[in-house]
Amino acid sequence: MRVPPLPELPEVETTVRGLRPVLEGRTIAEVEVRRERLRFPFPPDLRQRLTGARVTGLGRRAKYGLVHTDRGTLVFHLGMTGKWRVDPAADDKHDHFMLRTDEGRRLFLNDHRRFGSVDMVDDDALPTYAPLAALGPEPLGPDLTAAHLRRALAGRTGGIKTLLLDQRIVAGLGNIYVCEALHRSGIAPGRMGGGIAEGRLERLVVAVRKVLEESIAAGGTTLRDFQHPDGDLGYFANSFRVYGREGERCGCGATVKRRVEGGRSTFYCGRCQR
DNA sequence: ATGTCCACCTGCTGGC
DNA sequence: TGCCAGCAGGTGGACA
Fold it and tell me: Does A176 lie in the same domain as A70?
């Protein structure tokens, strides 16, 4: 079974890297807002504010993409099905938001399920912008350590799987990479967060970094080697060891299991993960 | 404070 | 063959 990857941290990182050469240093010549809202209403002054703005740089925080301009920062979230389409051959009914650069490149934010969001934040307000300020450490940065996890998980009785999805504990993980990281570190998804030994947390940190880095590397390869006819940025081929593989063989020979918790699928191997 | 559940949304799948 | 219920899940809010 093959599952299209949802936009988690690696997909957002790959998207930002793909947008950078198109946007960085450019001036936004035209902005089109095609509906009132995605998950949240578009800022009412979005079009006016971005038109004529100069893009100074692009970045990412957790699953948020950041487009810094001389008039503030455009913060976008891809939700579950969001992607940017660059110079697409044809129009699509789920192209909700368009930027045209002074070079005539056209970028469409496409999101058929509309769980994504777009916001515009003043530079001086960015450090206290609530959606970003509440986030835990970047998993690929120096602040994600076993010691951090030990402190953040202390006393927590919930399952480690659920807790790792909490963006305040670690920022940027979603259902897919949490399942993969737990599998690689041999930790059962239902294990109580507060009761995990330090050595296992060390292994978990390593596994989280590794699975994200491998995925970003794969995405980078895709961007370099493969030009999608529609210029899609945000989805790329990937292979998972447990996610979406219910009933298939784990590397150890046991069968991959699926369990639903809180309406979310958890894929795991009952033999490798304890 | 913490854990649990639901709403949001649409394309796809499986069952009849 | 066609229809439709059910499912997928990131996030924020409601609730106990």
Answer: no
Q: What is the number of domains present in chain A?
A: 2
Does strand C come within 7 Å of the CB of A77? yes
Which two three-digit tokens encode residue A25? 């240093």
A198 and A84 within one domain: no
Residue with tokens 């930002």: A16
Active site residue A61: no
Question: Which among A107, A92, A111, A5 has a CA at the least distance from the CA of A58?
Answer: A107
* Per-residue pLDDT tens digits for A184-213: 999 999 999 999 999 999 999 999 999 999
- Per-residue pLDDT of A34-85, as tens digits, reads 999 999 999 999 999 999 999 999 999 999 999 999 999 999 999 988 999 9
The answer to whether A113 and A6 have CB atoms below 8 angstroms apart is: no
E strands along chain A, which residues? 28-33, 55-61, 64-69, 72-77, 82-86, 95-101, 106-111, 117-121, 232-233, 256-261, 264-269
Residues 228-267 of chain A in contact with strand C via CB under 7 angstroms: 260, 263-265
Query: Residue A123 maps to which CATH number?
Result: 3.20.190.10
- Which nt is closest to the CA of A116, judged by C1'? C10
The answer to whether position A248 is within a domain reads no
Token digits of residue A133: 């300020």
Task: Answer yes or no: is A155 within a domain.
Answer: yes
Exactly one of A26, A63, A71, A245 is catalytic; which is it? A63
Query: C1' nearest to CA of A113: which nucleotide?
Result: B9
Residues 6+ apart with CB under 8 A from A158: A192, A193
Check if residue A6 sits with its Cβ under 7 angstroms from strand C. Answer: yes
Same-domain check for residues A126 and A151: no
Q: Residue A14: which domain range?
A: 9-133
